[in-house]
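Run folding on both entries below.
>entry_1
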Amino acid sequence: MKIILVAFLGTLMVLNPVFPQESDITSNLYETYEKYKEKKLDKRRIKHHVLQPLIAKYNADPRFSVDKVGESIEGRDLSLISVGSGKTNVLLWSQMHGNEPTATQAIFDILNFLSSDDFQDEKMEILRNLTIHFLPMLNPDGAERFQRRNLLGVDINRDAVRLQSPESRSLKRVRDSLDADFGFNLHDQSIYYNAERSEKPATISYLAPAFNYEKDISEKRGNAMRIIVFMNNIIQKYAPGQVGRYNDDFEPRAFGDNIQKWGTSTILIESGGFANDVEKQEIRKLNYVSILSAIYTIAKENYRNIAIEEYELIPENDRKLFDLKIANVTYNLLGKDYTLDLGINRLEVDKEGNNDFWYSSRIIDQGDLSTYYGYESFDAKGYLIKQGKAYQKSFEKMADVMLLNPIDLLKEGYTQVRVKNIPFDLLESPLPIHIIGNTYKPGNLQLEVGINPTFLLEKDGKLHYAVINGFLIDLNSGKSDFKNAMIYR
């Protein structure tokens, strides 16, 4: 069914009043997203074999072509999925870093959209003017292990000149064979990036890479900047203030910089963090909406009317976010009270098979962190840090511990429970209290960068909060976004 469209580029018209009035597919793409979302890809830890039935579906569809364009070091196929008949070639590649899968998911959402019966007029405009090529999961060996580098230990994004990796050679060969007009270099970045001088995460960050040390702006690079301005205005509608811009210092080994130099208008897109979006599903949706909208404006060539000057107005990326920031807490050291801020991150530890993870948190910084921010922030002025105790009773097995009320134990000052027989395959405590083995001897709490953040917060002689493995727990209400505590054997 044809979807009725509303005004095109509403926010962009404010910045560029000469921009021609067009139909806006952006709002409708956002509102109808669930219809096209590829449900088989609902977690970040995607494996190559999961993609193969999806790719086979497009191989069987006469509107699409699927070509094997190379293999990884371990022999996994690299597939190029193409659609459209236009003279302008657009190349999108994702997951050259194996642990950066957000855009891979969005690519298959876009493919679902392009194969649907909806938006017929808009898709006709796209597919008549463009030929779109998707190279998802360039680094399948890294994806298998959920690691950044490939099996050779090489960062593919720094192998554009030497081309030692077969994955690198495949990307270079595809780019050259297509002589692509536009390239979308799709990545994930750390969730701890923020938009400069802002507490807001850099949910999406962009870069039109430089092609020389002088950072010259050619027509091709200028077009990439215009597309980024266009996409920024879309993201601002759904994640206001949550866009960053990468530093454009020239990196002669990088694929983005070289592909720009080779004559392709290259747009780097980095998917960062978004509050309460651990699996980056909302960010995936923003990728889908903004990339499809950008493809549409490329097809219509409306980007040519966008002022390049708007590109420099996008705030630069910064890295001043923590999962949890505790400010102004009192810490007694050697009999003297000090005021500290604590920056805490919850670090993911992959389970065997790299399909799931648990958290092992760390204090990342401490001292005056007044220029830093947190996804969660707590002003602990008036609260004193207290070390937790080990519960005096030792339990035989975990089943006994599961009968306890951990909040009651925390209120009494206990942050650890001793268990004689801890299952070998149990990696993390499901309760907001650490599990320790029979012979484990807890040390004295001394706050320093790198330790696991576990302590209690006391005010007026009463315990009000606990921090267990970096998760803040309100002992009065029980409120917390707690996921797991630690096991110390």
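>entry_2
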Amino acid sequence: MIAWINFIIMILSSLLCCLLYIKSVQPVALEKKIGEKAYKRCTIYHFIAGILMLAIIVTQFIYFFFPLPINFPRFFPWDYWISVLVAIGILIPSLILMIKGVQDAGKETMRPSKEQTLYGGIYKKIRHPQALGEVWLWWIVPFLLNSPFLALYSLIAIPIFYLFCVFEEKDLEYRYGQAYIDYKKQTGMFFPKRKR
């Protein structure tokens, strides 16, 4: 019973996180409906989405002790140290991307601001370094717990993060207009564009 309740909470947390994060990256669209307070509301959405991400991690740990009673391997078929190395191999480049993205985005990372200009630094190469780093963090806990089920479940992060980026870009086009459209032509969404 605990296993199923935990799994339902994991799914609901993932869906709510997705919904709130998408809402958090659309301050300009929301401003058209409710005015200036849209930016503060988007900050709250972002904060709650972060709490839900932590809830997902908690449910992953609970899953380790209370796995679903299904016919699925409980552990990866290799030695545990391999899973730890995979987790470290994911963590290091992910953190580097996220930290660089946060440094170059500044306060806008947590609080959208109407006055914010287009970013520099890593954003001159790719448009979503933070998302590219953060999406892979969903696999850290599954590998540390040596759980193929949780690693498979974490695939849900890929479409979720892609949707975040798509909705955010729509809002950035509203905010910056042609400047952002031109910026999109010059930079890749997740990987640098090759020079022609």
